[in-house]
Recover the amino acids of this structure.
């Protein structure tokens, strides 16, 4: 089945630690995205990538980093500079930017 | 200013009845798209329906229809014949060409279908 796989489902971070969230898609989509969702809120864009080896900052990129070395993969690193990382993180992809996005099941990140 | 406004934090509907979820948007870009997504308690976001700013007809997908009123900048989602499985959060979203087709999401409406 084609789709988007996010791992892990739950992740815990210690103070001062970087953690990386995985996102893999087999839909052959060019565009990929990372969103953050806080309780009672909509989604906010962290980073997006239109094509391999290219990515742009979204509205809340500070404290996060990404890479897009392969079409299928768009990992998100939550760095120690992100002071309030506890949230639900959703990865998405679309054929090209602007088309309907397909989402993974999300990763819930908490601080220990 | 908020680009997407959903004013109904929670809605209830009787099973088999129709329900309308409100969404208003703010843009000066003539080229934009409007989307609705469903988020069950499990967390994944499910794409439901899309309306382009130049589309003349209201979009429909099965039991979902989008009531697009361009002059009023509203894009309400209508769910007909509600089912228990429709209970979820519903998010309205917009993308604008002049911001690189970035998506903006509303804060969502929680829908509960009552048997």
């Amino acid at each position: 089945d084609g789709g988007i796989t996010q791992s892990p489902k739950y992740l815990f971070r210690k103070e001062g630690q970087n953690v990386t969230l995985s996102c893999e898609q087999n839909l052959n989509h060019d565009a990929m995205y990372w969103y953050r969702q806080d309780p009672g809120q909509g989604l906010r864009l962290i980073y997006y990538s239109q094509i391999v080896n290219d990515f742009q900052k979204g509205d809340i990129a500070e404290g996060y980093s990404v890479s897009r070395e392969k079409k299928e993969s768009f990992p998100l690193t939550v760095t120690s500079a992100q002071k309030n990382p506890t949230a639900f993180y959703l990865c998405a992809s679309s054929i090209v930017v602007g088309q309907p996005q397909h989402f993974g099941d999300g990763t819930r990140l908490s601080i220990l | 200013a908020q680009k997407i406004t959903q004013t109904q934090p929670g809605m209830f509907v009787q099973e088999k009845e129709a329900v309308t979820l409100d969404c208003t948007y703010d843009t000066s870009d003539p080229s934009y798209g409007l989307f609705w997504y469903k988020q069950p308690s499990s967390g994944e976001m499910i794409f439901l329906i899309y309306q382009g700013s130049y589309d003349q007809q209201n979009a429909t997908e099965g039991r979902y229809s989008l009531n697009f009123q361009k002059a009023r900048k509203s894009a309400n989602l209508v769910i007909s014949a509600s089912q228990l499985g429709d209970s979820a959060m519903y998010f309205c979203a917009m993308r604008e060409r002049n911001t690189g087709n970035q998506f903006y999401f509303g804060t969502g409406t929680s829908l509960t279908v009552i048997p």
Summary: The longest strand of chain B covers residues 88-96. The CA atoms of residues 37 and 47 of chain B lie 5 Å apart. Chain B is about 0% helix and 50% strand.
